[in-house]
Amino acid sequence: MEIVVQKYGGSSLSTLEKLDTLGARIARRAPRNEKLVLVVSAMGSTTDQLIQLAKTLCPDPPARELDMLLTTGEQVSGALMAMALAKHGARAISFTGAQVGIRTSHHHTRARIEGISVERIERSLRAGQIAIVAGFQGVTEDDALTTLGRGGSDITAIALAVALKARRLEKCTDQDGVFTADPRIYPEAKTIPRLSYEEMLEMSHSGAKILHPRAVFFAWKFGVPILVRDSAVEGQGTLISEMEGNVEQAIIRAVTHDASIAKVTIFKVPDQPGIASRVFEELANKEISVDMIVQSTTVVDTNDISFTVKRPDLAATVEILDRLCREIPGAEVKADSTVGRVSLVGLGIRTETRVASRMFRVLAEKKINIQMIATSDVKITCVIPETQVQDAVKAICKQFGL
Question: What distances in angstroms separate CA 121 from CA 95, 118, 184, 257, 398, one per listed residue?
């Protein structure tokens, strides 16, 4: 008997009508020769509403208490899903993250999973029940509730899939798979039938809101295939797995974008060992994720270092760097929160020189100034003015026939 883990996002669970419809569909699937584990997010915009509620009462709520509040959203979804399944004749049981033994670090609001016990889930599956697990949450070794950060339910789902040795993870959304671009910006975008783990990881890092990057990484590390599909209708979807064969020619998959970043530059950094290490260690100690690091020499014996961070982390980043710059004579910090990035993703991109030239040319034709460039084996990313991100996405999609 094989196990399949399904993850349902908030948009798929946003109303009682949707929950009822899903309950009926899942109940019909239950008699198949497989065991189902469902991981659920909070209904609709519940998490945002809870955060707003907390901040209205207390502008800077204690992180521990915020986690206590936010974990309730997924618990509501889990219980209601179990009720919907019962209504349609299926046996189901819901669990919190703590009840199924998801152990995490002590970093409230952005904890990381450190261990997981699936014994309770396996007992339920052997008893013929569908197991429903509240995503996005866990518990520390001293029983404090924690959350895993935005998109954390994806991480819960892949962690359970790995621990249960599931056949695959099904990410059930309100779209039939992964698209070549955001359909809200480029309506002509197409569904991509197949992606490699590496391509999906780069897409997730560069703004695609399909899967959390850490979830993709875990799936890649442990070889768990992911099927991204529509939760409401049967369709082909997008299969994410190891890609077979060698790629001799660049395969352009998608254009992704992210308008929620900020650019930070430290000017006049002494050109000597240990300075960059100190800067990024300080940021890492505060769990601030840094991307697109570029160093350039503008004056003899000094460098400028530019990088991007998520906009919610900008204030903390600037605070840390201002303090460091006071200890470095002549150094100063400048932040720009009016930028975004656009990325072209596909296998073999770096080895095909014409891909980069075509991308840069179409941006130039649209009079879009490129402020930073970063490349990898499967991605080219440009930081550009935020106001021009949508125009860039449309132009690049047309240039590459996406």
Answer: 9, 5, 38, 38, 48
Q: Which CATH superfamily is domain 2-174 in?
A: Acetylglutamate kinase-like (3.40.1160.10)
d(CA 380, CA 252): 11
**C-alpha distance from residue 396 to each of 44, 378, 385, 389 (Å):** 32, 16, 16, 11
pTM for this entry:
0.82
What's the maximum distance between 2 C-alpha atoms anywhere in the chain?
A: 75
Query: Each residue of 210-220: b (16+ CB within 10 Å) or e?
Result: bbbbbbbbbbb
DSSP state, 89?
T
pLDDT digit of tens for each residue in the chain (402 aa)? 699 999 999 989 999 999 999 999 999 887 777 899 999 999 999 999 999 999 999 999 999 999 999 999 999 999 999 999 999 999 999 999 999 999 999 989 989 999 998 999 999 999 999 999 999 999 999 999 999 988 889 999 999 999 999 999 999 988 888 999 988 888 898 899 999 898 899 888 888 888 998 999 999 999 999 999 988 777 788 999 987 655 555 678 889 999 889 998 888 877 777 777 888 888 888 888 888 888 776 666 777 888 898 998 999 888 888 888 887 777 788 889 999 999 998 877 777 778 888 899 999 999 999 998 888 888 889 999 999 999 999 999 999 888
